Each structure stands twice: as structure tokens, then as C-alpha cells.
Amino acid sequence: VTRPTRRFGALLGLVALTSAGCLPTPATDEGRATADLYRVFFAGGVIVAGIVWVLATVAMLRFRRRDDRLPDQVHGNQRLELVWTAVPLLTVLVLFALTYVTLQTVDATSPQPGVRIHVTAFRWQWQFDYTDDGVSIVGLPGTQPEMVVPVGEPIHITLDAADVIHAFSVPQFLFKRDAIPGHTNTFDFLVNTPGTYPGYCAEFCGVQHAQMLFNVRGVSPADYDQWLATQRAASPSAAASP
Amino acid sequence: MTAHAAAPERTDFVSWVSTTDHKRIGILYVATAMAFFLVAGLMAEAIRIQLARPDQSVVSASLYDQLFTIHGTLMLLFFATPIGSGFANYLIPLQVGTADMAFPRLNMLSYWLFLFGGIIVLLGFFTASGAAATGWTAYTPLATDLYSARPGMDLWIVGVALVGISSLMAAVNFIVTIYARRAPGMTMLRLPLFTWAILITSTLILFAFPPLTAALAMLLIDRQFGGSFFNAAAGGDPILWQHLFWFFGHPEVYIVILPAFGIMSEVVPVFSRKPLFGYRAMVLSMVAIAALSMAVWAHHMFTTGLVSLPFFSALSLLIAVPTGIKIFNWIATMWGGALRFTVAMLWAIGLIYVFTIGGITGVMVASPPIDFQAQDSYFVVAHLHNVLIGGTVFAAFAGIYFWFPKMTGRFLSERLGRIHFWAWILGFTLTFVPQYQLGAEGMPRRVVTYSASTGWDTLNLISTVGAVILFLGTIPFLVAFVLAMRAPRTATDDPWEANSLEWATTSPPPHHNFGHLPPIRSERPVFDARLAAAGDTDGKDKGTRAAEGLAGAQGRAAP
Prior knowledge:
The complex is a heterodimer of chains A (about 240) and B (about 550). Chain A has about 240 residues and is α+β, with helices and mostly antiparallel strands. Chain A is built from 4 helices and 10 strands, in the order αααββββββββββα. In chain A, the strands form 2 sheets. In chain A, strands 3-2-1-5-8 form a 5-stranded mixed sheet. A 5-stranded mixed sheet of chain A has the order 4-10-9-6-7, with helices on one face. The radius of gyration of chain A is 25 Å and the shape is elongated. With about 550 residues, chain B is mainly alpha-helical. Helix content of chain B is about 65%, strand content about 0%. Chain B is built from 17 helices and no strands. The radius of gyration of chain B is 24 Å and the shape is globular. The N and C termini of chain B lie close together (about 10 Å). Mean pLDDT of chain B is about 95; it is low at about 1-5 and about 540-559. Chains A and B meet through helix 1, helix 2, helix 3, strand 6 and strand 7 of A and helix 3, helix 7, helix 8, helix 9 and helix 10 of B.
């Protein structure tokens, strides 16, 4: 193999590496915490990959076999090995500490949530019950039901499944949680930017798994109150939003 | 070249299907695992073609679900696990210096259970309702009779149970062979690293596979005999399946990667002309990986909300430390060496580059907040292919190019091998790097299609182009195989100037393996013998570990 070929390969890999793995802009406070953590992990990963790739590349370029001489038969070096045991150990300890701190934000639940919504996943749709407000959104086959929430208020979700395991996933919240029959999961999020955020079922649940889509729409509190009123007026058991 | 000493062996069909010779069983294992690899690879091509453009229906959703289920099942359980057993079958008796496995007939039974297990899983495609379609993880309650009434699911359970039992039998056989059948002088700390890897892997199998067998039996009882282990409505728990499955499934990840690490630790020193850097650290790091791998299963279950996130996160992060030791020790082995870039070595070096990225993304998903985004998305798909292809598959190819002369007496074409390697590097990068980005953007795995409005079409198309390159890149390998099998046997006993005992006998070895053994006074008996022979002519120190004292000496290798 020629050197230019190898260099080209390394370059290609490096370009691909650095252009991959960008998260979407987070739309929740929890998502922002996760994105911050992700940036640290990603930067650390680039550094580690850089060290390994540079060392391996230098070894390849410098130590090609040129004659029949037997190289130094080095069996090891305890000091060096201690270094590449201790440094990674310290690195993962730091990463764990940051993970632990971020978890406190991501997993936190508010004592006074603005809205409580019970989400039921079923094959192959979603039902959103606004438990305090008597509004129900039931997804009909072929539709994409919409969960409307006010921005700037903690939303408390209780989540379960009617049949098999599903998962409630909103990529721009950088979050997902499994919906499990016989067990109710809970989590909070606070949408900080108005907008419509696509959601998916992330746990394979059968033949129409790919069609289990929904949206979360963050609106101002005033618009939210108006939306609630419209829903109540329309029907006590409102059908799917368009 | 040493002449073939033994009487001519029978080579007819009956002699192969009735063989208890570890070398033939090893070759059958490797060949069968590669056949399943090719079949499962074709399924992956169908999956990628379906996903090439948004809103396509090249294959139906129902068939698509079967394809990714059986793709994963075959790749994990009928390729990645048994390819390690295949190399181990061929090499362990040779590397420890004995004539065969401790239990040759048990060994034969392991192979046949593996083969028929795979066939039984595939038979699902020939039933009216199709093969299992739950994903290779078979999560309950989706996999129970309520939602997967099809016989294909039962065939899957039976086939997977058979390969599980096969792996257990093989593991017992390897452990006994390694402990009890070592040649005089072959102490534990002189074992080749590949043998160490198989010893540790086999021990892991003893712990990991019985829970899988139990889980499969429970699922079968739920499906066929009115049980309700996994039915929440009847007091069961669907999450119990995930605990049992991943209690097997995470050690399984290391069951398929430790033999790959073992192959690395054979190939890299040989083509660096240096001993493995830090032999003891390499053994200990594998032990550490195996021990930690028993306590990280629930990192597959972070999003269930039902497991201790800090505990499983911390232990998962810790595995990066012994894995990092291995990567750095391989580079240190190359450092200061005399590198020969044979195709086997290219795959080994490729593993260092590619597997490292998989290790890093593994650290990322070990952090629960990041995993909340990555779980069940294409990020995880990219990560697992990054470690399984960049680890197990690359090492399997390294092993095949390395030991093919020993197994057959013939060489695979280095020229075709280079095309194979570079096509795979390119194909791998194009297939899986875009998947990391797709996953970061939230594309769920196991979806049959996606809407154009998601903006995922370009990255998916690149990924499919990469998959096609992987397919095309495999053809030179198959051509090299056919050409080699038609070529005369030209391989000498020790064509690579290698270290371990399999290179001290003919290529291929006679039925009983060894006429005589060289003295075993280090972890590199064949290197020692070669150096001693050269030392005779050069008048250098003939001590068996003379190499250590001969810094930069002119020890010419005996051809």
C-alpha cells in the first residue's frame, strides 16, 4: 500500500468523523443539559481518537520492515502501561461525574407541574389525556396526533402502554422513555422554544412501528389556554387533531 | 518445507460429516459461520436498499421486519459467536501442543447443533406467516403468542436454544483442553494470547448462556403451554425478559470480541517482529473486561426507567479502561518493530483505527442522558456495527488471511486481499458514519421507511452506497478463496515467521498434529526455535529467551 493511499484513507475517515454526530438544537431545558454533556463527551472522543490514530499512523510510517535485522525485543514497560491505565481511568471518572450531575437535571420532576398529561401508547397510535383539563387526544390510524403544551412550564408526563412495549421519543428534546405495559413511567420536560417537534415510537412494536408518529407543539401559555378551550368545546372525547 | 508425514487422509463427504478431528471441525465451523455471514449480509443489503430513498416499498413492512430480525440473529449468534469457536477449534489443540480437543465427539456434536440451529431459524422464512419478526432481541410481550403467533417465532426459539447449547458444550471442551492438555513446558503464562482469549471467553459463556437458555424456555412456555412469565396482565413482567436477555446479551458482546482481541494479539506481534507488549497486562485486561461485562447488562435498559442509572453507567464506562490498555499495547507492540503490511496485518491495523471509534461511541452511550437520545436510534445501530464489524469481522478477516496457509497449505492472494480490505474500509465508513448522524438526529432503528420531510434521505442514500461497496468488496475475497483452492500447496510450515506452536508443524498439519514439539520455554516457542537455529550460525547466545538480550541483533530468521 502506498503512503498517499493510506493518508487519503486517514483523511477521509477524519473528515467523516468530525462531520458526524451533531445533535439537533434542543427545545427543552433538559435537552440543553444533555447537549452540553454530549459536547464534552464528543470533544473527549475526538481527542482520544486523535491520539490513537496519530500514534498508530506514526508507528506505521516509522517502523516499516526495511531489512532482516531483528528489532529490540521489548516485552513491556510498566510505567507506560500504568500511564495508559491511569489516564483513561481518570477520564472516565470525570465523565461519570458530569453524567451524574446532568442526570439530576434530566431526571428532575417539578413539584408543581404546569400541565399533567397521561400518554398511552398502543399498536399503532398514541393517546394524550390532559388529566386536569378533561381533554383527550386519540390518534386515529393514518394520522399524526399532536400534543400541545405551553412553553416555559414544566410538563409532567405519565406514560404506559396498552399492548406491547413502545417508546416515547422526541429527537429535539434529546429524550426518550419506554412505554411498558403494566408499569407507569414518569418524566418532566420544559419546552423553552415555541415550535412543532416531531415524535416517534422508538421501540420496535410490530408491522406498523414506522407509522407511530406524533408531534409535540409548544405554544405560548395564552395560545395554550385557547387551544384547551377549543378542544373542550369540540367534544368531550376529541378525535385526532389533523 | 516439511514433507507430509501421515498416511493420506480420506477427503470424501462421509469423512467430513463424520469427522471428530478438531482441525476439520474448525474448518467446518469457520466455513459455516462465513456462509451465515454472507446470507445475513445479503439481508442487510435488502434492508439498505429499502432505506435508500424515503417512502419506498421495495420490500413489504412484514418482510422487512423478518429480515432485520434474522439478520441480527444470524450475525450475532450464527456468525460472530461460532467464528470464534471455529478458530478456537482449529487452533487451541495446536497452540497448546496436543493432538485433539479433550472431548472430540462432544466437539462434533457442538458443530452439528450450531449448523442445524441456524437452519431451523432460517426455516421460518418457509412458513406461511414468515420468520420471527421481533428484532433479534425478541422483546416480550411482542414475542409472546399474543402478538407473534407465527411458528417462525417458535423455530427461532428452538434454533437459538440449540446454538446456545452448542456454545456451552464448546466452552466446556475448550476450558478442559486448555487446562488439561497443555504440552510439557506450556505453562499458563506461556499460553498464546488467542488461547487465553478463548479460555476467558469460554468461562464467560458458562455464565452467560444458561440464563439465555432459561429465558428461551420461559418464552416457549408462555407461547405454547399457557405460561405468563412475561404477561403483565397475568402477573408476569415483560421487563424480566430484558434482564435475562441482556444478562446473556452483554457478556455476548464480549464473547464475540475477546476472540477477536486474541487474533489481534497473535497477528500484530508476528508482523511487527516483536513480542506482544505487556503480555500480563493483556491477559489481565481481558479478565477485567470479562468480569465487568457481567455487571453492565442494564445499560441496554436505561430508557426503561426501571434500572439504576448511576451504577450501570459507572461500570459501563469502566470497561473503556481495560479496552484502552489493549489498544495502546497493540500500538506499543508495533512501535519500534519491523512492520510488514500483509493483508492480515492491514485488517489488524484497520481494527485499531475503526474499533477505537466504536469504543468511543460506546463510552458516549454509557452515559444515560446521551443514551436517552441514542437508544434505539441509528446512533446505536452505527455503534454496534462499528464494534462488531470494526472488531469481530475485521479480526475474523485478519485471522482468515493469517491462518489460511496453515489450514490449507495455500495462500489467499495478497493483491485481491488488499482490494478487499480497502473496499471494506471505504464501504464501512460510508455505511456507518452517516448512521451516527441519522441517529443523533433521531431516526429510530427498525423502521421500514421514513418520510421525505425528515430530511434523512441524503444520509440514508450514502449509507446504502456504502453497503453496496461492502457487498462488492467481498467479491475479491471470494475470488481469492476460489483461486487459492485451485492453486498448489506452497505454504511452508511457518510462512510468516510466527511465534506459536501451530507454526511448528506442517501446513496443513497431519491428523495427529505434531511429530515432535520444539522446547517450550517462553510464550514464543517457534520464535525461540528459529532464533536458536539462527544463533547457531551466527554464534550468538542460544538461550531460549536470547532475543531479549539481543537488542537489535542480527538474528536472521530461518526460512
